[in-house]
From TrEMBL:
This is adenylate kinase. Residues 160-195 form the Adenylate kinase active site lid domain. Belongs to the adenylate kinase family. GO terms for molecular function: AMP kinase activity; ATP binding. The keyword Protease does not apply. Its EC number is 2.7.4.3. It comes from Dioscorea zingiberensis. CDD domains: ADK. The keyword Protein transport does not apply. Keywords: Kinase, Nucleotide-binding, Transferase. It comes from the Eukaryota. The lineage of its organism: Eukaryota, Viridiplantae, Streptophyta, Embryophyta, Tracheophyta.
């Protein structure tokens, strides 16, 4: 709670919470700064691994869609420009998105670096991102490429079931709920997302191969790509990530 002088009053914060935060900060202080990009087709496991990487390395997670929505809601100058484009049904320009990433990087939670997920999707975006980081005196340290065969993805995605209110996900083959179609925790029905169909996946994969694979080549030339075997179990992928980020 903030007092009238703007000083935070910690007297009402439970000691356990203070200790947990203090220990987290001490642990984070010794971590090297890192700026990471996660690249991979839909269903390759980026969403499973990014929260783990974020906590382990004390990074902030910059998801461009979320950041755009937040900037629009906060009515920042860039957010207002983004809203104007969206209201006209236009795509938000690469320069605007890079500007919003630039703003987000200045938050205290991004002090040790960030994970970018869902951006850059094109080589032009990658170049603009590099130019912006160069002005800040930093650069991308590592690109984690979640490499996986299209056929494996189809099996993964079409068997996926989601609990809408919590975001918990299940898989009819790999992680089934105790009762088919029912969330383990709440007993509420699970849904099959509209875009988790073979037809939608096919068009998303085509876009990924066409637009985003050149981005992997762009960063490979810089020598900063680590290729992960994304068909493996989450635990095995986590080990590969730990090796890549040593």
């Amino acid at each position: 709670m903030a007092s009238s002088q703007g000083v935070v009053d910690l007297s009402d914060v439970p000691s356990m919470d203070l200790m947990t935060e203090l220990l987290r900060r001490m642990k984070c202080a010794s971590k090297p700064d890192r700026r990471l990009i996660l690249i991979g087709p839909p269903g390759s496991g980026k969403g499973t691994q990014s929260p783990i990487i974020k906590d382990e390395y004390c990074l902030c997670h910059l998801a461009t869609g979320d950041m755009l929505r937040a900037a629009v809601a906060a009515k920042t100058p860039l957010g207002l420009r983004a809203k104007e484009a969206m209201d006209k049904g236009e795509l938000v320009s690469d320069d605007l998105v890079v500007g919003i990433i630039d703003e987000a990087m200045k938050k205290p939670s991004c002090q040790k670096g960030f994970i970018l997920d869902g951006f850059p999707r094109t080589v032009i975006q990658a170049e603009k991102l590099d130019q912006m980081l160069e002005k800040q005196g930093t650069k991308i340290d590592k690109v984690l490429n979640f490499a996986i065969d299209d056929a494996i993805l189809e099996e993964r995605i079409t068997g996926r079931w989601i609990h809408p209110s919590s975001g918990r996900s299940y898989h009819s083959k790999f992680a089934p709920p105790k009762v088919p179609g029912i969330d383990d925790v709440t007993g509420e029905p699970l849904i099959h997302r509209e875009d988790d169909t073979p037809a939608v996946l096919k068009s998303r994969l085509e876009a990924f191969h066409k637009q985003t694979e050149p981005v992997i080549n762009y960063y490979t030339k810089k020598g900063i790509v680590s290729n992960l075997h994304a068909e493996k179990t989450p635990e095995e992928i986590r080990e590969e990530i730990a090796k890549a980020l040593k």
